[in-house]
Structures are given as C-alpha cells and as structure tokens.
Amino acid sequence: MPTPIISVDHVSFAYEEEAREAVRDVSLQLPRGSFHAILGQNGSGKSTLAKLINGLYLPTKGTVTVCGMDTADDRNTWEIRRRAGMVFQNPDNQLVATVVEEDVAFGLENIGVPTAEMPARIEKALRDVGMLEYAQRAPHTLSGGQKQRVAIAGVLAMQPEAIIFDESTAMLDPRGRKEVMEAVKQLNREQGITVLWITHFMEEAVHCDRVHIMHDGQIVLSGTPRDVFADPEQIRKYRLDAPPMARLAVQLREAGMPIRDGVLTAEEMTKEVLRLCR
Amino acid sequence: MQVTLENVTHTYQPGSPFQATAIRNVNLEIREGDFLALIGHTGSGKSTLAQHINGLLRPTEGRVLLDGKDIHQKGYDKKEVRRKVGLVFQYPEHQLFEETVAKDVAFGPKNLGLSPEEVSERVTEALRRVGLGDPALAEKSPFELSGGQMRRVAMAGVLAMRPQILVLDEPAAGLDPQSRREMLDMISDLHRQGTTVVMVSHAMDDVAHYATRAVVMEKGAIAMDGAPEEIFRHGEALEKMGLDVPSVCKLGMYLRENGLPFPQDAFREDQALSAILTLWKGGKRHGAQ
Q1: What parts of chain B have a pLDDT lower than 70?
Q2: What global pTM score does this model have?
Q3: Predicted complex: ipTM over 0.90
Q4: Nearest-CA residue of chain A relative to B257?
Q5: CATH of B32-54+77-225, one of 3.40.50.920, 3.30.420.10, 3.40.50.300, 3.30.1370.60
Q6: What is d(CA B210, CA B202) in angstroms, rounded to the nearest whole number?
Q7: A243 touches chain B (CB under 8 A)
Q8: B240 or A127: whose pLDDT is higher?
Q9: Which residues of B touch A214 (CB under 8 A)?
Q10: CB-CB under 8 Å, B269 with A274
Q11: Within 13 Å of residue A243, how many CA atoms lie on the same side as its CB?
C-alpha cells in the first residue's frame, strides 16, 4: 500500500499535563488525492487535531506523519508546513500584505523561493482559485469568500501536497461558502491535492470521499457520507445534524415509502420521488 | 410598540470619495408580535437597516417612527429608544468585558440608574431566560465559558434592559448545529412570550422554521416582504439574488420542473413529508387502476 499523505496513529493530546485530553486515541489516514471531512461540534477536538497534523502541537501519545515525516522531529517542521498547508477560519487574520499578490508572495519569501521563480508561481496560484484579476487589489476591499481564496492561493504557491481547512467557511455568507468550496473541490479533482476539510456544516461534507465524526476528543464514526448520515438519530447524539434530505428520507421510509438508502441532496431526493410517484 | 421606517435612505460618509448609499427609500412597518427575518446577500443593506431600528444610525433622508413619533426629532428621548429596542450585534461575545458574568449583564441596567435590588433582579431573570440560571455560573469570568455560552451572556445583557423589540444580527453565526438550535429555540420562546423579534439571517432553513415574516433586501432596497410561504414560492428569484433557499423549496422546484404537483407553499420538512406521501399514495392508486 502506498504511504498515506497524512497518517495519524493512536494520537492523544492534552493542553496541560494532567488536564483532560482534548484528542484521545485518534487514528486517521489520508491517501494521496483523497478528500476527507471531519465534523464535530464546537469543542469536540477537531481544531486541535488540525494543529497536531501540521505540527503546531505535538502529540502527547502516538505519532503524526505527513508525507512520511514525523511531526515530532523538529527538523521536519518547515517541510511539513510547506507540504501540508493550512487555511484558518478568520480571513482577516491571515492576510498580511497591502496588495493581494504580495500576500501570496509572503510565504514564498519565507521558504526562500528564488525571486525569479515567484511571479509564475503567484500567477498560477491566483488563477487556480479564480483570483488572478484581483492581484493588484488591497485585501480589505475583497469579500470574505475572496479573502479566503487569496489565503488558499498563499498556501498553493508553496506547492503543497495537502491542505487542511480549519473551519474556513464558518465566517462566510452562503455565496462565499460556495465560492470557497467550489475552488477547493476543483483543486482536489484537477490537481490531486489531498484535502482535510474540518467543519460543522453537514452539507459541506456531503461530497467528500470520507467523513469522520469527532465527539469529545474521539473519532466516533467514520465512513462514506452515505453511511455516516444514514442514521440521523445517532448524528444528533453528537450534537450534529444530518442534512435535511437525509432526515426527510428516514421519515418517508418510516411512513412505508421505499426510498433507497443514502439520499443526501435535493437532487437525489427528486430522483427517488420521481421513481416512486410518477 | 411599532417601528415604522418612512422613506429611509442611508449614505455612509456623504460628500467624501468613499460615499456609499447602503439603503435607499426603504419603507417598512415592524408590527407588534412579528418574528421578522431580514434576509439578503452581504452588502444588501440589511445590517444598516437593522441599526436604524434602534436609532444607532440616523437616516440621511426619511424618518424612523416609534409608535408614530419621530425618534430623531428634537426633544425625543433617545435613551427611551435604546431601552425599548435591544440590538444584539454579530458575534456579540466579542464585546464582553467584565470580571464576572453577573457584572457584565448588570452593566446596562446599572446605567439606567436602577436601584441595586432592581438591577440584581433583572440580571437573575435575564440569565434564566437565556438558559444560564445556575447561580455558580453568574460569578464566573465570562471568558471561561464556551463560545455558545458567551453569546448567551451577551444576549442576557441586552435582555436585562427588558426591550419590547429585539433586533439580532445573525445570532446563530458560527455556532455548531446543536447550539444553533438552542439559540433559535430560545429566541422563539422570547417571541412567544411577547417580544417582537427582528433577525438578520443567511440561513434559510432557520427562517423557514422560525420566522412569521420575511423581508428580502437587495441592493439597498426591499425586494420582497411577506410570510415565509409567500417568499419561498419565488425560489428562482432568491437564487438569482445569490441567496440560498430551504432544501425543501429546492426539492419542490425540481419536482415541479419534472411535472409533479408538489405544492408551491411547502418549505418545511413536515410539509414536504405529507406532500410526498400524498403524491406517493396518489401514484399507487393511479398505478393500481
């Protein structure tokens, strides 16, 4: 089996000695090119896990490896952060420069990319997230969704193999969320960038390869979106909510209608209703 | 208690190069007992409108009337407006500052010049109403609480002023699904107990479940105003404005496009359930003939 891009092996983490562990015995593997989502309520440990993966925190037990490199070995830290970039929640805290393209250049300067190589990398990164025409703009004049796409371009310019998104759409409006989600799906599909998507929006997890539900520091449920959302009652126990169409499917089945398993979106529900009612 | 916006226009930084008109010629009557959802894309003017309701912003043109009286007229007591209309900003927990939860909630009522007994009574009541009635909690630092709890403390601070109208700018933003439901159920309880509610929201499924009236803003003007079942009939128009529609509306749109008579005014899950079962039973009967 090829080495996974991200491998979390029986990892626990406590913020202070003797404190309750924020992450407990978590194992997770992301193969190259996969798109995984981690869902969990506030305080479930999902953001702590993200910071463990890019070496901002080190496990108290277990090991995290990124592209085969152990995060606990501090000689690996910069290479890990370059290969597995991270995009955070608040777009206003991530942009540092006064012009969009300078912001994308910032990370490149930090890792010592030759100046001659920069313009091409910056242009490609901005084009990949659909922000090239904004290269000369001031970040504060952009919408939330645009700012997040610039933040993604900053990570992309480093030519990473994986990107970890830590609730990167939580502060955006529906249009901004859609923009960012589409850009990320495209990066995954067309460039094979491995994605770990951390969120509490169920509908964002619907199109992932695999969903992991975190509750109280542990992964309590893993599987394809269809499997994970098949039982809305169980999801509710973890203070989450299944997508509306998954809930409706369960109620229709309870009323005797033979809706097939795994309906998650309005499109899929439409097909089922047409199949059974027309 | 009724608020009327009469031909209200608001221009930020007029006369400067940054001049921007956020709302234009808005007419709106907020009636006692409304649970009014204010919807619109970012930049549509909904937050600007919301800040006119309690007099925080002054219209560049037009008038804001509270029970028929112009609140910006000379001699009108502005404090009266602030007392009657409570405004909860986005991410209100960022504004907590006191050493204890109780002190933070007491800040507003104290400024009203109430007696210490009255202040303490109001604090206890407000904390109970937001589901933080545990006395031990009142003595904690607000910064030791979870994000959802901090937001409740901020709301209690506004409720302690005993407003008759509560204006909330995206009260559930950033909360996880369970905290979101708890927050909206709590607002819904306040509404049932007689508070008029104006809620700015992006989440259409929430609007579908909780609001009695929806006002859609686009480019600084009111584009639609009506009961949620009327508004959500216009799914395509809402999508064109960059807004989401409740998932059930989307389902209805697809089914109707495919020739199934899914009712135009169904927008909640319970309505979808009975509508689909009716279609299914009708189809079965038809097939048996």
Answers
A1: 284-289
A2: 0.83
A3: no
A4: A270
A5: 3.40.50.300
A6: 13
A7: yes
A8: A127
A9: none
A10: no
A11: 26
